[in-house]
Design goal:
By secondary structure, the protein is an alpha/beta fold. The chain has 6 helices and 6 strands, in the order E-H-E-H-E-H-E-H-E-H-E-H. It is globular, with a radius of gyration of 15 Å. It binds magnesium ion. This is YqeG family HAD IIIA-type phosphatase.
Length: 172
């Protein structure tokens, strides 16, 4: 079961995900989480760095879709100025939103990476749906209400993984 929570990769920031490297892996699409992955959960708009990251993805012909469990207003306010497609109220880790995003991008699951800061939603959901998953360090250590619950469970899972020597990345 722990294996289902294991990301294929771990990076510090979403900005460390390099479009050229993705292309070399045969990746043509990114499904990314929003809160604490692209910006802090309580920040409304994209930062210049994130805008630049989206532009670089586009230049390398990599499609990006934002899928978030957060409500429509939050997700559309962030995504629309970037002209990035999104799915809100996605109910990750359930698979529908991932499948919908893949279909909209016209890509196979082998051609997509799923990026996010939470094991219980992003990584578990991405793994279940059969995507390559990349875990990022949450941008801030605070979270919205529901996420705080998930983090408690996440800490337990991470402890288990640590005990079993499954964590291959450097922790702060
Ligand atoms: Mg998140």
């Amino acid at each position: 079961m722990l294996k289902k929570f294991m990301p294929n990769e771990h990076v510090k920031r979403v900005l460390d995900i390099n479009p050229q490297k993705l292309r070399e892996m045969g990746i043509k699409g990114v499904i990314t989480d929003l809160d604490n992955t692209l910006v802090a959960w309580d920040v409304k708009d994209a930062t210049p760095e994130i805008m630049e990251w989206f532009k670089k993805m586009q230049e390398h012909d990599i499609k990006v879709t934002i899928i978030s469990n957060n409500e429509e207003k939050r997700v559309s306010t962030f995504s629309e100025p970037l002209e990035v497609p999104f799915v809100s109220s996605a109910r990750k880790p359930l698979g529908h939103a991932f499948k919908r995003a893949a279909k909209q991008m016209g890509l196979k699951k082998e051609e997509i990476v799923v990026v996010g800061d939470q094991l219980l939603t992003d990584v578990l959901g991405g793994n279940f749906a059969g995507f390559h998953t990349i875990l990022v360090v949450p941008i801030v250590e605070t979270d919205g209400k529901i996420t705080r619950m998930n983090r408690m469970i996440e800490r337990r899972i991470l402890n288990q993984m640590r005990k079993k020597g499954m964590i291959t990345w450097e922790e702060k």
